[in-house]
Records
---
Amino acid sequence: MSQDPLEGCRISAGKKSAVSLGKALHPPNLLVVVEGTCGACVAASPVSAPEGSCSYNVAHHHLCVCVRVCMAWQGLQKGETLASLKQESENLRRKLEEERGKLTDVELHQVAEKVETVAALSIKTRRVLKGHGNKVLSMDWCKDKRRLVSSSQDGKVIVWDAFTLNKEHGITLPCTWVMACAYAPSGCAVACGGLDNKCSVVPLSLDRNENVTAKKKSVAMHTNYVSGCSFTNSDMQLLTSSGDGTCALWDVESGQLLQSFHGHTADVLSLDLAPSETGNTFVSGGCDMKANVWDMRSGQNIQSFDNHQSDINCVKYYPSGDAFASASDDATCRFYDLRADREVAVYQKDSIIFGASSVDFSLSGRLLFAGYNDYTINVWDVLKGTRVSVLFGHENRVSRVRVSPDGTALCSASWDNTLRVSRT
Amino acid sequence: MQELSWIREGRCNSRCVKTEMTSRMPSSSSVTQARQLVRQLRMEANIRRIRVSKASSDLMRYCGEQAKYDPLLMGIPASENPFRDKKPCTVL
């Protein structure tokens, strides 16, 4: 912007009066909206800018007005208007639905009729992990299938041995609502984040006397709360999702932002990385009711699914990497196939009216464990779409369910301050 | 600032306070946004897809192959299960 933005415009100078000029300076590029109150004397309150504008502040003290120069309509193509673009996007959406519909020759549960029904499960709570002083918001298993990390509303992150119930490490964060925690693949560190808008990595030491909290290192910086985090295949990179609507990939050592993923139009609540054999993608779900699949290298949104009718609280890949499931506040869980590019199953019941907060698959992918806000965990037959079992025990809503890496145990975290480890 | 943390807390507590996106998005004309949306939709419409019947049978085949390795699905024989319900024992 080398030219004087006020060139050719008449401005009514006046304190505290909003004046809109509506004069196009470089048709149709600029529209100047002038509002009263100089930036130097009184903080200007935002004026409702006309559609299609952005603004930056230029204070002209001698005029005692603040000028917002709106750089709208960057070179509209001939014949292209906002309305025509909207029309085109509507047409494309319709075309997308048509293309998906053409390949829907049969439903998953119909194909699955010939599969044997799942035998009655005998999963019982075998361990109750008590020690958190407040709601447990998140947990993650270590690859050694025995340790797990959990985080809570009181700012504490605890590393447990699930067999012996020993608390191996306790980390205190300065913020409350630690909504995300993850174990590093090596088992040597944990990542945690929440209302502090950061995701920190804490290296775990074998020395019990060492203060682990002191070695905490901030890696990710967002402009709103961190809702989910996950290490990639190594301890070196961390993927985070945030209430600011973005996901981001960070280098742990330097704290540098490697890639950011924009596309959600509201808070992103959950993310999950594709199982390592299937490549560099991850799926995220958010308050905009959309589940998006991203390419980690390019930052591109590859596929998007908007079948849910409320916030998506959790997304999880199917073990083969060709599909994923989502849990939502609309009391349903849904199953999407990535190669068919559509939703292929909905797990719902009239009697289930509370939102689902978390999902995870069993090792073979046949069972889907879903934790709900009505304090239960429903176990669904992924292929047939029917409910196999209900697990009771928690005394408040279930915030997270995770199957252990060897598939032998299910850990559930709850707002009743405990975690439960269940096995057959 | 205090208001903002209340909104965040409210978000966590009731999950019905949605943070306002427009104030945080980088300023851009809605024309640019509309153009980006059209570009994104065009790309999504053109990806290669397979039939649901093929996708379903692949999922079923994966489940079938992996089922025997799934302890939560199949159960563990009592002899090997360290967590089996213990029977009372008598001291002779």
Note: Helices of chain B lie at 2-14, 30-45, 52-66, 71-74.
---
Amino acid sequence: MAPGEKIKAKIKKNLPVRGPQAPTIKELMRWYCLNTNTHGCRRIVVSRGRLRRLLWILFTLTAVALIFWQCALLVASFYTVSVSIKVHFQKLDFPAVTICNINPYKYSVVRDLLADLEQETRVALKTLYGFPENTSRKRREAESWNSAWEGTRPKFLKLVPLMAFSQDETGEVRDFLTGRKRKFSGRIIHKASDAMDVHTSKEVVGFQLCSNDTSHCALYTFSSGVNAIQEWYKLHYMNIMAQVPLEKKINMSYSAEELLVTCLFDGVSCDARNFTLFHHPMYGNCYTFNNRENETILSTSMGGSEYGLQVILYINEEEYNPFLVSSSGAKVIVHRQDEYPFIEDVGTEIEPAMATSIGMHLTESFKLSEPYSQCTEDGSDVPISNIYSAAYSLQICLHSCFQTKMVEKCGCAQYNQPLPPAANYCNYQQHPNWMYCYYELHQAFVREELGCQAVCREACSFKEWTLTTSLAQWPSVVSEKWLLPILTWDQGQQIKKKLNKTDLAKLLIFYKDLNQRSIMESPANSIEMLLSNFGGQLGLWMSCSVVCVIEIIEVFFIDFFSIIARRQWQKAKEWWARRHAPPGPQGQDNPGLDIDDDPPTFTSALRLPPAPGTQVPGTPPPRYNTLRLERAFSSQLTDTQVPPES
Amino acid sequence: MAHTTSGSPTFHEAQQPLPRVREDRRRERLVELHTSFRELFTFFCTHATIHGAIRLVCSSQNRLKTASWGLLFVGALGALYWQFGLLLEQYWRYPVIMTVSVHSEQKLFPAVTLCDMNPHRPRSARHHLQVLDEFAQENIRSLYTFNFSENRDVLFADDRAPQPAFYLDRGIRLQRLGQPGGQNRVGFRLCNSTGGDCFYRAYSSAVTAAREWYRFHYVNILALMPSTREDSHQSHGGHFVFSCRFEGQDCQARHFQTFHHPTYGSCYTFNGVSAAQHPGISHGISLVLKAEQQDHLPLLSMEAGIKVMIHGHDHTPFLEHQGFSIRPGTETTIGIREDEVHRLGSPYGHCTKGVEGVDVQLLYNASYTLQACLVSCFQQLMVETCSCGYYLHPLPSGAEYCSYARHPAWGHCFYRLHRDLGTHRLPCSSRCPRPCRESSYKLSAGTSRWPSSKSADWILAVLDKRSHRSLSQSPSLRSNVAKVNIFYQELNYRTVDETPVYSVPQLLSAMGSLWSLWFGSSVLSVLELLELLLDAVALTLLLGCRWLHRAPGSQPGAATGASHAKPEANQLPTDCRDDTNRLGGPAGLISHGASQSSGGSLC
């Protein structure tokens, strides 16, 4: 019989040694290593030579460590996403298009409300820049204002005075209203001394805002007078308009028939009825195309400028508010039907007397939410209540957050955004010093001190339309001759004047092609992939499997502890016995009496007399076997040892 | 362990003679060698963990069985290595996939460079340029019999009198080039230093020809001037930025860098913002600009407006390559959308993380961009081949700018080289790798009229007061000012990342799966095989050495007798030990240990 067979037979004989019955942990390990299917461990036991054994222990441990490391890497990269980009070619839904005139209200109508403000602005302009002296007409008007000035008390300039002050002597402020210098004791928000515009006059314009108790004041300075006047005007404008009810404001603004001179969609004529009204606080009446409730969303059958939306807008520069808006034209925003149009943030402008072609390209993005990323599906898990009647977006969340904080801190809502429940817009009848509060809060918001940026999360899916704008002169010199009279005649009811070229703007919005790009995230790893990778790692390093993992758990956790527990139990029992035995007739020199329950074992029989301190074997039968096992190897060793003696 | 390795002879001698005593665990040697191949083999067969191999080698009873197992073994091995080959081939190609991901972190506002497209005359070159203007007039008159007079001549009439003479190469002049096809072309002739090799720079339009021709002379004149790039815009009479607001606050002077570009005029770079920014117009930058149409060099700059370029921080703006123009009299709103590209670099591809590792010395004092590298490379080639540098690019150390006063034939050389660059015959494109991180800015713009007719009067008046210059005197008020708003359009930005298809853990997993599938072994099994091999080598050496030594003694069964192996190994002579000691690596280590322990007992 081959020696291998012999050893196999011996091992088989030794097999009855089972894990939990092994007397010591060392024996358990030995037994495990000899019988396990895991590579490496067996070698530790069967190798001869300490260096070999040590090396094998090292190898095995290294393999285990590598498995853990690589598996940790695999787990760490489990929550990655793979991105697929699909390009569909299909009939595309046309987005909602919101069009606003840059000027919110017809100046001739609002002028009654803003007359005082305009007058004071003119006075300020005259005092600071000597502006109306340029033309004789203006001078006359200015004089008439000046005369009117004598009678009434300035309201707005008193509330928030515009001031000019020189850069050299900070703290010295020339209040242009009274003309005298006075000491300014406040915080200057914008350090004017290192502003970039250093080449010209030393005077800087600004205004002062104070908190309720007027002890905290902030001076907002502007290196350019244009910005100073506009900001100052806007502040008062918002105050005045905040008190005007919405219906009145809608009536003051442009009607759909007025704004939209002609309309053509997908080659078919459309009119004002296809547009829905959307009132924006700063842009007045805006009209949204393709956003009608209870109606199907329009779609274009073809790409190209012929099949999109073509409108001619009536800009009417005559009715512009000179101080509120400095540019003329319209604003357009392309958005989803359920999305709020943030016209003030991302609108595209349209120039009068020009044809603006806007080509769109649609990209959809879908992200995976938890645990892959921090995005939110519908905003319901974001602790900010949506004050807009539109679908969640990050922008909406940020604005809602700010508005809520504004109501909290200042007691009233900012005019630009919708009203949260149970709040009203700020005006200085009720909240005299809201402006200081707003400015402070806005600074804090920009510096991310309000926590809005931390709370708000992005939406998981969004559509975006990439716009490509191109401009052309419109109408051309030749076509102008027939086009303008016809349009004037068409709009006879709405517009009671001869249309001018600069009063009109043409807008074309269309899909460049009907390709829709979808960027979709999908989990890069499935659980099967992870398991198969685990299997690969276990197999590569140790040829291990789930069964061997279970085996390891069984041996190392269950048996291991059962052996320890058993030994502890026996120790305790022994200690108990010794503690209670001394009074009785204790045969300490008689090992046969040591444990009555156990039958005399081979070991105990051999070890006569045992050392007093020796451990009493717990379960004798395994001891038998392990002894024999040892002999199996020692006999093998004796084989090699025999010849020298012979 | 150390004491055993050193192997005190007396200790071993004391131990060896004890015959029948069970070998104590403590007495186990560092490395014990099998006494015979047979024993070694048996041991291996008993304890090997490789699946097929055991059947093949260790069951020798049945030939058919052995043959079939051998076939299976070879087949499995072949399949395994074939699969390994496929896998590794794929891995070593280092494939990458581009993953697009959408992020919504706030981004740094990019740098914005604005130029007024209105280069002014350097004070020191004023006389030279005047001579050039006269020469240009003369040229155009001779071509078109059209007299364009410059009112500027009157302006500078006083400092016309005593100026040093300078060299203006009047040989290079605009010519009408008759073509056999009948198309009239206008151009100018450039020759090399000997005059033997000449070519025409020909243009179908005289407008471009005149501009190009003028620029060539202009560059020649400027190259002779002492470098006054930095201070020159001060003399120009001030800024063209009326107001600048960022995030609703005035821009600070430290946010701006100014420089003067020879062909793009005064330029400003707004670069100061280091904090993350929000999207929306109110959080962007808003500028009111003076777009004067009073050209200082009418032949050089023909456009009116502002050139705007949006680029990354610390990147050199190359206005001639990118950038777009702003029309006067409008408010232009530019939305930025940023895309980022991250490349993995070697071994997955070719890209560079910075200036290091690029064999082109960057002439710009800015971070690495492909364009900067290409320009630097071109300039260096220019210095090498034409022995002077092109004026519009920065100068490498130790070189001087080209001017026909110093290098008569540089124009010929330059245009040749430039054509080679255009047709990719220069090594620049291969010497300049792409940067590993790149941001590209996608812009979409909208315009509206600014200022509107209602607000124009007060706005222009206020601006007028600020600038102390009369804007409103020119016929069209609006055409002298422009407004620009630049803002981030989106909260979301995209990054395109290269990610490796195979990461190392995945590769190892795949290999492990294959290995387990075909062969059922592991890395540790390979180590077992290695151990077997080393043991066999050591044993061969041992036995061979002993056989050599004992050959005259003719000991029978020396190699095969398992029972005799041990004593003979123990009686190894010292020269054998030297033999085995010479083995390198771990084999040397093991056999060294083995021979020491066994040889030690002899001495």
Note: Chain A has four domains: 19-80+528-561, 83-104+254-367+461-521, 108-131+154-243, 374-459.
